[in-house]
Amino acid sequence: MRLESTLNEPTRPDQQPRTPSPRPGGRSARVRADVVAATLAEVAEKGYDGLTAEAVAARSGVHKATLYRRWGGIDGLVADALTASADQPWPLPDTGDLQEDLRRITQEVFSVFTDPEQSPTPTALISAAQRSDAGAAALRDFFTARHHQAAEVAERAVTRGELPAGTDGAEVIRAATAPLYYRLFVTGEALDARTAERAADAAALAARAGLFASIPTDPEPDTAPNTPDQ
Amino acid sequence: MRLESTLNEPTRPDQQPRTPSPRPGGRSARVRADVVAATLAEVAEKGYDGLTAEAVAARSGVHKATLYRRWGGIDGLVADALTASADQPWPLPDTGDLQEDLRRITQEVFSVFTDPEQSPTPTALISAAQRSDAGAAALRDFFTARHHQAAEVAERAVTRGELPAGTDGAEVIRAATAPLYYRLFVTGEALDARTAERAADAAALAARAGLFASIPTDPEPDTAPNTPDQ
């Protein structure tokens, strides 16, 4: 049985995706890792419309009844694959310069989503997550977590005196990466390395000008942005 | 018969969406306007998964056979609704100041996509377009057309001497609006008026610094952005 026929029905309380709480290294954790890997592989190959609990069960070696009981169904599997992805370590650049750190972050996004080897899985996962409320909630949590993790590059810049105190680091990261995701997932326009670099540069410039400080200066057209102390 | 069962099949050449070439004011143009309006209403109410040629036919008063013949099916209807939307006049601000013009543009995007009255149709149309190749192509053309239309605010700023010659106006518009669409259609994070304003300000700052000039200056961390002449 495919789950898709039930996708547009209202979710009943007992169908809410359940995120397992694995004991690290335990059997539950291994089952989850296998199921997440199988879900990622299936969604990359077949997309949301081709995703079935049968195929995830076959690929992971986990019984379909277990998938339904622990994940609630396809949307819970997609959501948990995102949750698991958010937990993956994500090494941040630390070059000592905000602009260079941001360039490396946008270069990483550019590489992941334009490399034919790397791009299918995250691209399919994001698209699949947009197809259900559970997926959309996991997607929001995933990006919010990433923004706050990566905010560290802005926080270090504040510590160095490169950015004003009170700068919203997550907002700096959003500013740097939004022009890339905008092309990739909204307009479908071409994305190149120069665009990725420029997005980082624009975000660094705005951050230095205090645009992302929590008590924003009100930049007037004829006010020159702050220049860094260095 | 619903068309959805055929959506994931390869498109045969005779199923390619055909964009009618209406004679303005003629019967063909009226038929197209009725069909586009019905498609927009249906997609806003029911989403892509609930969109049927029957319902568009019933709502528009145009025979289903005509819809298939002229639009090829659901995806052609969605694509043509976008094409028709791109042709709608879109009044641009002209305040004499780039930053203020950009603020009004991002405020307009913010208003349209967060107003419960206005947002359902464009939101559903964009989501529906992402579901097929024909829709994705129309979506890309739609945004590219909008970017180039709105580029006029940057071109005027170049004429006024507010921006460097050779500034890519469409890129300035992308920079200003991307942070909004990123939240609306990728991360699902909350969008507020302050974020919309700040996105405009950051784009204006980057444009003034020459980041969107065709022969980009290479901004160094310790180089102050250009200040406008005024």
UniProtKB/TrEMBL annotation, chains A, B:
Region span, Disordered: 1-31
InterPro entries reported in the protein's UniProt record: Homeodomain-like_sf (IPR009057), HTH-type_TetR-like_transc_reg (IPR050109), HTH_TetR (IPR001647), Tet_transcr_reg_TetR-rel_C_sf (IPR036271), TetR_C (IPR011075)
Designated name of the protein: TetR family transcriptional regulator
DNA-binding region: 52-71
Biased composition regions of type Polar residues, renumbered to the chain: 1-16
MF annotations from Gene Ontology: DNA-binding transcription factor activity; transcription cis-regulatory region binding
Ranges for domain HTH tetR-type: 29-89
